[in-house]
Automatic annotation (TrEMBL):
Alphabetical GO biological process terms: cellular response to L-leucine; cellular response to leucine starvation; negative regulation of TORC1 signaling; positive regulation of macroautophagy; regulation of response to reactive oxygen species
Pfam family, one: PA26
Domain of life: Eukaryota
Annotated region (Disordered), positions in chain: 178-208
Protein name, entry field: SESN2 protein
Taxonomic path: Eukaryota, Metazoa, Chordata, Craniata, Vertebrata
Family: Belongs to the sestrin family.
GO cellular component: cytoplasm; nucleus
Compositional bias annotation for Low complexity: 191-202
C-alpha cells in the first residue's frame, strides 16, 4: 500500500538534489544502496533521519564490535522471519569479520549472544511481559555477563530491527539483485506521471498485477461502505464479516492458515521457540499484566 501513497508523486523543490546527495552518502558509507534506502528515499527528510540513526547504531563507536551488532540485527529480524533483513545482515556480518560458523544457527553463537534470545523473543511479541529480572539476569556478574552499556546498545538494536522488519513487510521490499531471488528497486521520478513502480522494479508484470488487485479490492470496500449507508440495521459485526470475506476472496491476501514454506533454514535457524508469538493481553476474564495506557 505504501507504493500507492499519492504524496510520493508530488514534486517538491530540491527533492531530486537532496535525494541524490543522500544516496551518494549511503553508497560511500556502506558501499551499496539497499532497497530500503531506495524506497525510503521517496521521502528524503525521513530517509535522512533514518539513515543517520542507522549509521550511529551500526558504524559509529560503541561498546559492541561491528560484527556483533549485525548478528543482533539478524536475531531480531529472524524473530519476525524477515528473510530480507536476515540476508542483508548476514552479508554485513561477514564483511565486518564475523565468524561464518555462527551463521549455522543461534546454537553456534557464543553463549553471551544466545542469552539475548529470551528478551529478543519478548520484545518482538509481548514486550509487556519484560521485568527487571530479565535485565538483572543479563547483567549478573559471570563469564557471559553483559555490561550496562553493551546491553543498552543491544536492546536498541533489537527494537530497531523489529520495527524495520514491519517496514520491509509493509512496503513489500524485495532482495537486491545480488541476493537470491532479488532484483532492483528504483524510485519513481518526482516529475513522472507514470506508476510509482516500474515493471522492472516490481519484477516484470507482477507490480502491475499487484497494484490492479489493490485497486479492485479498494473498489469492493468502497461499494460495501456505500451499501452500509443505504441499508438500515447493518451492525459493525456484519460489516466486519463482509470486509473479511472480500479480503480473503481477493488474490492479494492469502488465508492466514497457510504456512509459508518458502522460509529458508538460514532464517529459522536463528530462532528458538518459533511458536512463541503475540497474544492479546486484554482478554476478558483473564488476569492481565500491568500496562501503561494513554488516552
Amino acid at each position: 500500500t505504501a507504493l500507492l501513497s499519492p504524496s510520493w508523486q508530488i514534486p517538491q523543490e530540491g527533492v531530486e538534489s537532496s535525494l541524490r546527495q543522500l544516496l551518494i552518502e549511503a553508497f560511500v558509507s556502506a558501499g551499496r544502496v539497499d532497497n530500503i534506502t531506495m524506497v525510503m528515499g521517496l521521502h528524503p527528510q525521513y530517509l535522512s533521519s533514518f539513515w543517520k540513526t542507522q549509521y550511529l547504531l551500526l558504524r559509529m563507536d560503541g561498546p559492541l564490535p561491528y560484527y556483533k551488532r549485525h548478528y543482533i540485527a539478524i536475531m531480531a529480524a529472524a524473530r519476525h522471519q524477515c528473510s530480507y533483513l536476515v540476508g542483508l545482515h548476514i552479508g554485513e556480518f561477514l564483511q565486518a569479520g564475523g565468524n561464518p560458523a555462527w551463521l549455522q544457527g543461534l546454537h553456534c553463537a557464543p553463549q553471551k549472544l544466545r542469552n539475548l534470545n529470551e528478551i529478543n523473543k519478548l520484545l518482538a511479541h509481548r514486550p509487556w511481559l519484560i521485568t527487571k529480572e530479565h535485565i538483572e539476569a543479563l547483567l549478573k556478574t559471570g563469564e557471559h555477563s553483559w555490561s550496562l552499556a553493551e546491553l543498552v546498545q543491544a536492546l536498541v538494536l533489537l527494537t530497531h530491527y523489529h520495527s524495520l522488519a514491519s517496514f520491509v513487510f509493509g512496503c513489500g521490499i524485495n532482495p537486491e539483485e545480488d541476493q537470491d531471488g532479488g532484483h532492483s528497486c528504483q524510485p519513481p521520478s518526482p516529475h513522472s506521471d507514470s506508476s510509482p513502480a516500474s515493471d522492472d522494479s516490481m519484477g516484470g508484470s507482477g507490480g502491475k498485477d499487484a497494484m490492479q488487485e489493490v485497486e479492485v479490492l479498494m473498489e469492493r470496500m468502497k461499494l460495501l461502505q456505500e451499501s452500509q449507508l443505504e441499508e438500515e440495521g447493518v451492525t459493525q459485526e456484519e460489516m466486519a464479516t463482509r470486509f473479511e470475506q472480500e479480503k480473503t476472496e481477493s488474490l492479494l491476501v492469502a488465508p492466514s492458515d497457510i504456512v509459508d514454506h518458502s522460509l529458508q533454514s538460514n532464517v529459522l535457524c536463528f530462532v528458538e521457540d518459533p511458536e512463541f508469538g503475540y497474544k492479546d493481553f486484554t482478554r476478558r476474564g483473564e488476569q492481565a499484566p500491568p500496562t501503561f495506557r494513554a488516552q
